[in-house]
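Subject: design request, 370 residues
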C-alpha cells in the first residue's frame, strides 16, 4: 500500500515550502506598509523642527540685536561694541546660526538675557503649567465639540443643527483673549463663583511647592499631597482658562464631527444597517462613529499648534504662569535665547504630536498608508 505524502510535503519528509530563517519575522515586520508609513513620518520630524528653528532664528535677528536696543543711548560706542562681542552678536550671522544649531544639538539653549537663567531651567519650571492648561483645554474641546457635533449630525438641517453650527462659528471666530475677559467679567467679577487669575491661591501654591519632588502639574501634586482643599482650589482656578482655550477648538471639532458623521451616515453600509432595524444612538456609535474618527483625530493633532499659540494669550489673560506667559514677557524684552528655546520646545511638541496622530490614524483606519 502506498501512503500519500503528508500535506504540504514530500515522501522523504522534506517540505516544499520556503524555510523561514531566524530573521524572517523581523524582515516581514520591516516590510509592513504600516511600519514603512510610520518610519517615513518619523523621519519628517527632524526637518520640521529644523525648519521652525531656522525661521525663528532669522526672524529674531531681523529685528536687530537686543544689546543695541537696550544700551545704545546709555553706553559709549566702545562699551557697546564690547557688550556685542561678549554676547557674540558681532560675528557673521551664518556663524551665529551654526553655533546655535550645535548648542541645540547638545541640549544647550543658552541663558536668558533678562534674568540670566538657563533656558532649560525656564522650560522645566514653566513647561508643566502650559502642559496642564493644554490638557484641560483639550478635555473641554473633546467633551463639548464631539457630542454636540454628533447631535448636529443627528438633527441635520433642523433647528438644533442650525443653532449648533452658529455657536461653532462664533466659538472659533471669537478671539481667545476676548472670551477669557468675558468669562472673567461674568463668572469671576460679576457672580464671584471662580477666581480671577492664577493657577492656585498663594497658600496652595506654597504648600505644593514644599512637596518633595513636585512635578509642576498642580492637580497631580495636589492629589499626591492628599489635600482635598488644594485639589478643589486647583480645579476652580483651571475652569476659566480651560474654557477660554477649549471652546476655540470645540467649535472646530463640532463642525468637523458633524460633516463627517453626515457623510458616513449616507454610506451604503450604514444604510444596510438601518434597513436591518438599527437606528438612533446605536447606529451612530457602532456603525458611523469609527470611520468619522480619522479626520477628527488628524485635526486634533493639527490643532496642537493652535493650542500652544492660544496658550500665549490665555496665560497672559489669566496670569497663568506657563511658557506662554513667559514667552510674551521675553518677546517684549527681545530676549533671543529665551524666545528661541521656548519656540524650539513648541516645535518639538507639535512635530511629535503630529507623528503620534498619524500613527493613531493609521491604526484606526487600515487604508491610511503610503
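Subject: RE: design request

Done. Sequence follows.
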Amino acid at each position: 500500500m502506498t501512503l500519500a505524502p503528508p500535506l504540504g510535503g514530500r515522501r522523504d519528509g522534506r517540505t516544499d515550502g520556503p524555510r523561514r530563517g531566524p530573521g524572517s519575522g523581523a524582515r516581514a515586520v520591516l516590510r509592513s506598509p504600516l511600519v514603512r508609513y510610520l518610519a517615513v513620518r518619523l523621519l519628517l520630524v527632524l526637518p520640521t523642527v529644523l525648519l521652525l528653528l531656522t525661521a525663528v532664528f532669522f526672524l529674531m535677528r531681523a529685528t536687530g540685536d537686543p544689546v543695541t536696543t537696550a544700551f545704545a543711548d546709555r553706553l559709549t560706542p566702545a562699551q557697546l561694541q564690547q557688550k556685542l562681542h561678549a554676547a557674540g552678536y558681532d560675528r557673521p550671522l551664518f556663524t551665529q546660526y551654526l553655533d546655535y544649531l550645535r548648542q541645540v544639538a547638545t541640549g544647550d539653549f543658552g541663558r536668558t538675557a533678562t534674568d540670566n537663567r538657563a533656558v532649560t531651567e525656564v522650560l522645566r519650571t514653566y513647561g508643566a503649567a502650559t502642559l496642564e492648561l493644554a490638557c484641560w483645554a483639550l478635555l473641554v474641546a473633546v467633551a463639548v465639540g464631539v457630542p454636540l457635533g454628533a447631535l448636529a449630525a443627528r438633527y441635520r438641517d433642523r433647528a438644533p443643527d442650525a443653532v449648533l453650527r452658529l455657536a461653532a462659528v462664533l466659538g472659533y471666530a471669537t478671539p481667545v483673549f476676548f472670551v477669557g475677559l468675558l468669562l472673567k467679567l461674568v463668572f469671576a467679577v460679576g457672580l464671584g463663583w471662580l477666581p480671577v487669575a492664577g493657577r492656585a491661591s498663594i497658600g496652595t501654591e506654597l504648600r505644593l511647592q514644599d512637596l518633595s519632588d513636585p512635578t509642576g502639574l498642580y492637580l497631580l501634586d495636589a492629589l499626591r499631597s492628599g489635600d482635598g482643599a488644594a485639589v478643589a482650589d486647583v480645579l476652580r482656578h483651571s475652569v476659566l482658562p480651560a474654557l477660554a482655550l477649549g471652546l476655540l477648538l470645540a467649535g472646530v471639532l463640532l463642525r468637523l464631527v458633524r460633516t463627517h458623521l453626515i457623510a458616513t451616515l449616507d454610506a451604503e453600509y450604514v444604510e444596510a444597517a438601518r434597513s436591518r432595524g438599527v437606528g438612533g444612538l446605536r447606529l451612530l456609535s457602532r456603525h458611523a462613529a469609527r470611520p468619522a474618527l480619522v479626520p477628527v483625530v488628524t485635526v486634533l493633532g493639527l490643532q496642537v499648534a493652535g493650542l500652544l499659540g492660544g496658550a500665549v494669550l490665555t496665560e497672559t489673560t489669566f496670569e497663568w504662569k506657563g511658557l506662554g506667559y513667559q514667552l510674551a514677557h521675553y518677546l517684549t524684552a527681545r530676549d533671543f535665547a529665551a524666545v528661541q528655546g521656548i519656540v524650539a520646545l513648541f516645535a518639538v511638541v507639535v512635530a511629535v504630536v503630529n507623528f503620534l496622530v498619524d500613527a493613531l490614524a493609521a491604526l484606526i483606519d487600515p487604508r491610511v498608508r503610503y
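DSSP finds 16 helices and no strands in the chain.
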